[in-house]
């Protein structure tokens, strides 16, 4: 049977690993053609110097049942982004889903370091990677998406608008970057909504990305071994969970009801009924407020 996104074309900008990879794979599992971009290929690594590549992501999209197309792209380069969008237009004639997941800042921030002590070059580089890339990509990709005024734009960030409003996130540069992406979704909602396109912000919860698993010295098949050191990690989720959130949004004929809003993977699981790969429905942001930030012992009962 054809998937609910059969015939749809998606661009996942920043799909080398983590949430971007999970989103691309789940869009493929729903039958979409998915263009996946990033800077790390099988021939060249970005400054992350990690093994995941966009070609690997495209292969996973194909294995899931979709059509994956890897296009090496530096989203800080407007010419490269314009060339990418021109290629999608030439090959597909349409764009139905744009996911702005570009980040690239993991090695550029220091925890709990005030702005006057933080490395300025790294902080400004983080802002360029986290904010400027999204603006460049939207500028060039949205005219193609607007050719068919039923599209979806997803701005991926860390934290809901409600949580980030009341909580200092890591440091000045990180906090500003994540707040800016939330505001971009709000602004795009005002510009795109009247034209029939839905824009929204989406955050995963505590993501078991490839990098996070490495930090804790575990794999996906034994991630619970990290709970002795970090008990609240019990609320974590796979990148496929937020991917299923995007797939559900893209297939929803009434998705416009979320225009301009800030959403989470756990919150949307309650709306659409999807689960993570283990069959659970972790609701990380509610858990963080009610359990972790409240100083209570780790207990995910009722939260996944």
Automatic annotation (TrEMBL):
InterPro entries: NAD(P)-bd_dom_sf (IPR036291), SDR_fam (IPR002347). It comes from the Bacteria. SUPFAM superfamilies: NAD(P)-binding Rossmann-fold domains. NCBIfam families: PRK08303.1. This is Short-chain dehydrogenase. It comes from Streptomyces brasiliensis.
């Amino acid at each position: 049977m054809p998937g609910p996104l059969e015939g749809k074309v998606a661009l996942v900008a920043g799909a080398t690993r983590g949430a971007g990879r999970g989103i691309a794979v789940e869009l493929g599992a729903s039958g979409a053609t998915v263009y996946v971009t990033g800077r790390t290929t099988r021939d060249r690594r970005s400054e992350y110097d990690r093994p995941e590549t966009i070609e690997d992501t495209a292969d996973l999209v194909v294995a899931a049942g979709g059509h994956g197309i890897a296009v090496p792209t530096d989203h800080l380069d407007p010419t490269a982004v314009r060339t990418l969008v021109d290629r999608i237009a030439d090959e597909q004639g349409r764009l139905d889903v744009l996911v702005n997941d570009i980040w690239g800042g993991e090695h550029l921030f220091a925890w709990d370091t005030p702005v006057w002590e933080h490395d300025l070059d790294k902080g400004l580089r983080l802002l360029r990677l986290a904010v400027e890339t999204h603006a460049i990509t939207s500028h060039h990709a949205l005219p193609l998406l607007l050719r068919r005024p039923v599209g979806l734009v997803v701005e991926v960030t860390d934290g809901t608008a409600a949580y980030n409003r009341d909580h200092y996130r890591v440091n000045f540069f990180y906090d500003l970057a994540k707040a800016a992406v939330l505001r971009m979704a709000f602004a795009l909602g005002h510009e795109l909504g009247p034209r029939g396109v839905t824009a929204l912000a989406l955050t995963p919860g505590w993501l078991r990305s490839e990098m996070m698993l490495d930090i804790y010295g575990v794999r996906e098949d034994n991630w619970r071994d990290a709970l002795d050191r970090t008990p609240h990690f019990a609320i974590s989720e796979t990148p496929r969970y937020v991917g299923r959130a995007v797939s559900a949004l893209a297939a929803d004929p009434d998705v416009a009801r979320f225009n301009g809003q800030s959403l989470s993977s756990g919150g949307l699981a309650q709306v659409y009924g999807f689960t993570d790969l283990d069959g659970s429905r972790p609701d990380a942001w509610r858990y963080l407020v009610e359990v972790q930030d409240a100083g209570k012992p780790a207990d995910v009962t009722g939260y996944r």
